[in-house]
Amino acid sequence: MLTRTPAWQALHTHHAAISKTKLCDLFQKDEQRFNKFSLLFNDILLDYSKHPVTDETVTLLLKLAQQQDLEGWIKRLIRGERVNNTEHRAALHSALRGDDPIFFDGKDVLPDVKNVLQQMTDFTNRIHNGDLKGYSGKPFRDIVNIGIGGSDLGPLMVTEALKPYNKTGLNTHFISNLDGAQLSETLKNLNPETTLFIIASKTFTSQETMLNARSAREWFVANGGTETAVAGHFVAISTNVQAVEKFGISAKNMFLFWDWVGGRYSLWSAIGLSIALCVGMENFKQLLTGAKEMDQHFSNAPLAHNLPVMLGLIGIWQINFFDVKTHVILPYDQSLHRLPAYLQQLEMESNGKCVTRDGERIDYSTSPVIWGEQGVNGQHAFYQLFHQGTQRISADFLASCQSHYSIADHHRWLLANFFAQTEAMMNGRHSTENEKEALPPYKVIPGNHATTSILFKKLDPKTLGSLIALYEHKVFVQSVIWNINPFDQWGVELGKQLAEKIEKELKNDESTSSHDSSTNGLMDYFKANRGD
Ligand code: F6P
After folding, report:
1. What is residue 514's predicted lDDT score, i.e. its pLDDT?
2. Could you give the residue numbers annotated as active site?
3. Ligand 1 mean position to 390 CA, how many Å?
C-alpha cells in the first residue's frame, strides 16, 4: 500500500518536522522564495510559494512522483494506452487538440478528429452566414444546448468565460436539470422559428437529457414547428448513432465523438459545438491550441518545472500530509463564475475513489471536496470561516492581469482584493497595526492557510484552453500518485438505477412498502401532497 512505501514515509517524517512552521517565517528566511516556488508557462504564472514547502519538500514530492512512475503514466496517457482499466478504454482527450497521428487499436484517430472539426467548421459557418436558417426563413438567434455533466458543464463554463469573444449575436442557453423549471423558464422567452437545439450526450441515454430533449421537441412542434421542421432545428452530438436515429435525428445532423473521450474531458470534441457557435470556429481552435501547448508541456517538461505536475503534487502534500479535506476554487474573474462547478465534476468524479486500480481498499485520502465562488463575492460570504474558522482549507486563486471590461478602476480593485486575501490568509493578524498590543481573541486571525495563485495575462481562448488542460492533467497526476483510475465513474450508476425503479412506483397513489421506512414515508408524503 502507498502509505508504507519509502517515498511516502519520507514525506511523513518531513511533515512532522515542518508542520509547525509558519508560512510567514519561511518568507522571512528566504527572499528568493517566490522565484524558487513559482513557475511560468506561456502567459500563465503558477505561484505555490504560499504553501508550507521547502527545497526538501519539493525533492521528496518528486521522489514520490518517480516512485509512482508518473513519467511512465504520462507517456501511457498521451500514447493512447487503455489507462481506463475498468472500462478498457484510452483517455485520449489530448488527441482532440493535437496535430500528430495517434494510433488507437492500430488506427490513427487523427483523420476522424479532423473530419469532425471540419464538419463543425462548415456547420458553424453556415449558421453564422445565414446559409442555414430556421423553418420560416429567419436566421437562428438562440442556441439551446441540452446535456448534463460533461455534456453541459464544460461548454457552459467556456461560453461564459469567452463572452467577450461572442461577436455572432447568437444567445446560448444551457439546459441540464430534470426540473422542468429550467426548460420552461428558458423556452418561454424563445421563438421556435429562430431556435436551434443541440442534444449533447455521449451515451444518448442519460435520463435527464433524453427527457429534456423530448420535451423541447414537443414544445417546438406545439409552438409552430412541424415534425418535418425538427430535422432543421435539432442536431445531436453523441457516440451512439443508433440512439440518435431512434430519437428522430438523422445521422447527417449528428456530430460524432468516440468512446475514448471521457464525458468530463469532452469539451474539446463536438461537445464543444455550442462554444464554436458562440465564439466562432477560429476561437474554438485557439482554445484547442492552448490545450495542445499544455499537453506538450506536460509531456516534455521536467517534473520540477511542469505546471500540472507541481500543482498536483502540492495538492497531494496538502491533502495527504496536512489532512486538507476541502479545496476552494476562487476565480477573481466574473467570466470564470462556472469554473468551480466545472472543476467539481473534473476533480470529484475523476478522483472521488476509494479503491486502487487493482481493487484494493485505500487507506489514504483521495479527492478533497472541491467548491468555490467568484472571489470577491465569497469574501462577503464564507471567507470569515477561512480567517477564523476551525477548518483547514487550501485554495486556488485565479485572475487575469488584463480585463476585457475597462470600467474605471474595477480591475485594479479586483486584483487588490486577490493579493490582500492571499496575504491575509497567510499572515493572519495577532496584534494591533503598530504591534503595540495583543488583540482580543475574537479579533485574532490565525492565518497560515496555504494558497496557490494562478495569474495569467488575459482570459483569451488560448489561455483558457491551457488553463483547463492544466487542471485536467493535475487531476491525472494525483490519480497516478493515489494509484486510482480517474477515468471511470461507477459511483453514479446506483442512484440512476434506483431513480428508474422509484419513478415507476411514483406513478400510482398506493402506499409504498418496498423500501426502508424513511424512503417509504417520504414517497408517501409526496404522493399525498403532489396535487394533480
Ligand atoms: O454523471 C455521470 C455521467 O456519466 C458523466 O460522467 C457524464 O459527463 C454525464 O453523466 C453525462 O453523460 P452523457 O453525456 O452520456 O449524457
Report:
1. 95
2. 349, 380, 496
3. 35
Residue 65 · residue 303 · CB < 8 Å: yes
Strand-pairing partners, residue 20, are none
pLDDT of residue 224: 93
- Residue closest by Cα to atom 5 of ligand 1: 149
Closest approach atom of ligand 1 to CA 263:
8
Q: Which residues of the chain have pLDDT under 70?
A: none
**pLDDT at residue number 466:** 98
- Calculate how far, in angstroms, residue 230's C-alpha sits from the geometric centre of ligand 1: 25
> How many other CB atoms are found less than 10 A from the CB of residue 57?
20
* CB proximity list for 177: less than 8 A, separation 6 or greater: 208
Q: What is the DSSP string of 436-470?
A: SSBPPGGG-B----EEEEEEEEE--HHHHHHHHHH
Nearest ligand 1 atom to the CA of 203 is 15
pLDDT for position 459: 98
Q: Which residues pair with 103 in a beta bridge?
A: 108
- Number of helical H runs and strand E runs in the chain: 22, 13
Q: How far is the CA of 96 from the centre of ligand 1 (A)?
A: 19
